[in-house]
Amino acid sequence: MRFGVFHQAAAEPGRSHADRYTEMIDLIALADEMGFDVAWLAELHFGGAFSLLAQPLMAVPAIAARTRRIRIGTAVTLLPLRHPLECAEQAAVADILSGGRLEFGVGRGSIPSQFHGFRVPLTENRARFDEALEIIRRAWTEERFSYRGRFYQVEELAVVPRPVQRPHPPIRVAVHTLESFAHVAEGGLPIYSGTTTTPLSQLRDCMATYRTRLAAAGHAWRPDQMALMLPVHLGPTGAAARDAMRPGVRRYYENIHEVFAKIPASYGEHLPRLKVIEDTLANLPFEKFCREHGAFGDAAEVIDRLQAARDEFGLSQIIAWFDQGAMLPREEVERAMRQFIGQVAPKL
Predict the structure, then answer these.
(1) Which residues fall within 8 angstroms of residue 308, CB to CB, at 6 or more apart?
(2) What is the pLDDT of residues 28-82, one digit of tens each?
């Protein structure tokens, strides 16, 4: 079992964006000292309340310079929003400058503001993702190649530099809907999911479909096939842990609402999801969130919850989001990280 930490670096009132990046890197350096295996960085655009991590690949070398052994992953690089040749180059440079510690997490994205901002139709995200991923893999493994697709054309190019890791950095695909689980299974690549977008009850059906499609496509289940991200907090009692996280969970939904509410109404496609977010905020189902999304409790409760998820979903990596909503004091985040690595990780 490997253990990761997840960072989204939401903006905070009264603090500069530079301060938030500094704090994130400090916490990742601490995670490295504690023995966490991977630091995962979100990629989100045009929504500072939700996240300031617009270009996580650029942060990889800076984090590598502050750490010794922890691997650094993107969760995830949004392939439909950038040219795949540029992405292949940038990720290769990140792998080189990190000493071969890049974990290349990729996804198609679904937040409308990002597609609206880059003027990429949201309806094209899967097709663009598939083309981009094929181009990147070929750019890293073929001396010179050509490609003709619906969105991208490549003619006799040699892409440099090459990554340190051979044949390329580990690739992990983010999946959050039943359709995505089924589609990605056909390629056999390891996957990443998160309970904040795919609650545990939904994940059960998704993973059953993924396993069935994976086998049907002739792919064996690999030891590193499945990584799962969950909001995590530990307290002296279960009630104390859940009470501590209640403001952060609300802030999380408030931040999502701020992002969706600022998309022009003319865009239209975001309006149904905006209504769901507004309904959630009007009557926040915190107890349901604790059941379906989070791992908040004392050490014994968190161990039981994560052991059950490990066994049910065949997890190879558990990724903890220790400060969902960015409402906890810094010292409380560090305490929870230490308690997790000291008391919870050894039981998993």
Answers:
(1) none
(2) 999 999 999 999 999 999 988 889 999 999 999 999 999 999 999 999 999 999 9
Q: Do 309 and 230 touch, CB atoms closer than 8 A?
A: yes
Q: Strands (DSSP E) along 224-288, which ranges?
A: 226-234
Q: Where are the domains of the chain?
A: 2-245+288-347
What totals of helices (H) and strands (E) does the chain contain, helices first? Answer: 12, 12
- What are residue 171's DSSP bridge partners? 104
Residues in the chain: 348
User: Over the stretch 112-171, which tens digit does the pLDDT of each residue have?
Assistant: 999 999 999 999 999 999 999 999 999 999 999 999 999 999 999 999 999 999 999 999
Strands 153-157, 145-148: pairing kind:
antiparallel
Six-digit token string for 40: 């995962």
317, 254 in Cβ contact below 8 A?
A: no
Q: What is the DSSP letter of 269?
A: T
φ/ψ of 332, rounded to 5, equals -75, -35
Indicate the fold that domain 2-245+288-347 takes in CATH. Answer: TIM Barrel (3.20.20)
Q: Which DSSP letter does residue 15 get?
A: S
